[in-house]
Amino acid sequence: PSMADRNLTTKLQDALNLVGVRTLDHIVVGQEDCVSLAELGYL
Q1: Residue 31 burial by CB count (10 A; 0-12/13-18/19+): exposed, middle or buried?
Q2: SS3 27
């Protein structure tokens, strides 16, 4: 995932935390594959 993907994930987590929603994962989908940020340790 790009730095922009990781930054977006952080912003989403912060916003969701404000309303009491826990982020379990964020999947980044590319042209040929997808990546779980939780599996990579970013969450």
Answers
A1: exposed
A2: strand
Chain segment 13-29, per-residue pLDDT in tens: 999 999 999 999 999 99
Residue recorded with tokens 């040929």 = 32
Question: Which residues on neighbouring strands pair with residue 36, listed in sequence order?
Answer: 27
The tokens of 17 are what?
Answer: 């935390």
Rg of the chain's alpha carbons, rounded to an integer? 11
E strands, the chain, are 27-29, 34-36
Q: Which residues pair with 29 in a beta bridge?
A: 34
* Domain ranges, ordered by start, for the chain: 3-36
Distance CA(17)–CA(2), nearest Å, equals 23
